[in-house]
Structure formats: C-alpha cells, structure tokens
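Contributing new records

If you add data, match the layout below exactly. Sequence lines come first and carry their own label; structure lines follow with theirs. Keep one chain per record. Anything else will be rejected by the validation script.
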Amino acid sequence: MLTLDPGRLAHLAIPIGTGWLLGECMEARGKQDLWTRKKPEVLEVLREQAIIQSVESSNRIEGVTVAANRLRPLVIGRARPRDRSEEELAGYRAALEWIFSRKKRVTVAPGVIRRLRSLAHGGSGDAGEWKKRDNEIIQVLPSGERSLSFVPVSAKRTPVAMDLLCRRYHVVRDRERVPPLLIVATFILDLLCIHPFRDGNGRVSRLTTSLLLQTEGFQVPRYISLERLIEESKEEYYRVLKLCSQGWHEGENEIVPWWNYFLSILRNAYKEFEIQVESVQARPAKSDLVRQTLLAQVEKFTLGDMAAQLPAVSSQLIKKVLTEMKKVGKIRLVGRGRGARWEIIR
C-alpha cells in the first residue's frame, strides 16, 4: 500500500533528470543563508507576501474564497472572521504561523497532522479528527461531468495507515539511504492517497509539505508561497497525482513523476527567492517595491489593482507613493470618481 516503503525506496533507481532537480534544490539550500542575510527588511516584505499568497492560493484550490478587500485584514491585520470561509483562511494562517514558529525539529506523528488540520479548519466540529466515513476523490471534467478519480483508504483503516506512514518516515529517514527530499515528497503522496480527513486534505498536505521541508532545513516556504506555485500549475499537479495514485493500493504505483513535480516546485521557489533578493537588495524595502510595481504598469490602473498586486503592502503606503510620484510628474490621475484611473507618464 504505502509508497514510503524502506525496501522499495532503497532499491529504486533515481533517474538522471530527477537527480539534476535534486541537485539544484540541494545547492539552493546551501545558498539560502547567504540570501537571508543580505537584506532583512526585504525578507520581511517577502514573508508577509508569502503568507498572504499561501493562505489565498491553498484555500482557493479547494474552492474557498473571500472578497479581495478582506484578504489582507484577515491574514495580516487579524480581523475577526465574518463567515465560515473567512474562518478557514484565518485558520490556515494560524497553521502556517505554528509551523514557522517551531524552534526545534518537529517529530512527524499522527497527532501533528491532526493538529495542522484542526488549525487550518478554524476549530470546526471534526477539525482534528480522522474521517468517520469512507470518501472518494472526484474529478470534475471540462464538460462538467464528475468522474471517480481515486478511492482512498477506508475510514476504518485510516488511523492505522497514518500511524504506519509516520513510523515509516522515521525509519527511512534514519537509515539515510534515500535523499531526504524524496522521502518528504513520498510522504506527501501517501498522505494524499490515504486522504485521512473528511475534507481539507489538500490543504493539510500543503501545510505538511512546509513543515517537513523546514524540518529538513529548506526555509524557502517562509519567503515564497509554494501554494501559489502549485495553484499556478494545478492542472499538472492533478495530472501527476492521478497518474501516481494508480495502483497505489497494490503497491504498484509510479513515484518518479511525483518526485519530479515536487522538486520542480521547490526549485522554482528557490529561483524566485534568489531573484527577489538579488533584485531588491540595493533598495529600501516596501516603498521602492511599490514604486517599481507602479512603473511596470502598462495599462491604466486603480488603487485596488495595486493592492491586489501588492498584498503585503498597506493601502496607505500605496497612496503615499502614488502622491509622491504624482508630484514629480511620474504618474497622473485620469477621470473622476469611481471611473478614475492612474496612468504612467511615458
């Protein structure tokens, strides 16, 4: 059943392409301390932006959304949730904060996974409990037709399966025969195939990814949203997940395509992290980040457009920069009232 099997993984050949991806991720981890020391104020901007994007993307993948003007207050401003959707976004923020505030290595255990689900679901009735009924993974086709994609582990067997998965993680990790990143990726695939909760399994898998990566010394999820990168490639995500879940119950499923997807997401996050740090290291943090974004606009735009592009920046700061740039003749306001738009003076 579980792909995370010590015998199977130890004898599984790592393809050249997977090896290259693995090497790039390891090299990036070696450079991350240098990048994080360069500009602390830039890291603060990236941290805020990453947590906002992670909360929004991970929930949006599951169909949970809130109004654009409520996102930042909920995630950064600690606004009180008004409805169930807002409770889930606030809960996901709390789960991320719990992960990133850990000072010591977290021992992966069923209780930890249940805690992440409890936090992410804002304390709903069964927030920290394994599923009580069997569930199915349904794929919605472009035609709107619903198709059975995968049948997870039964509710009755879920507690045993999760206990075995966590124990296997430590066994494989302690033997040091398989690269840690591949162990993490395999754990996440098995977690998704077990599908241990009534709902929210995708969100729990993404939170667990950040937790395990941090445990292995990969700090990039703090600064670049893996959830956003997954959402941007969600068609590939679902395609690979479906491919690698086929034959899972019989222990005959593929794992390499999932490894490649997982490593590609991590590599791309590190590439983006490097670009962000290197490109802004010589500038003050937020105000110049706003200025650069404004000057990059091709069409007319509103304050709301800028707020959406800069979720980690307050509306007050955006207004301040707009006023400054208007005074020096860089931008102008066209129109009046609700129809007013800003445009760059070329």
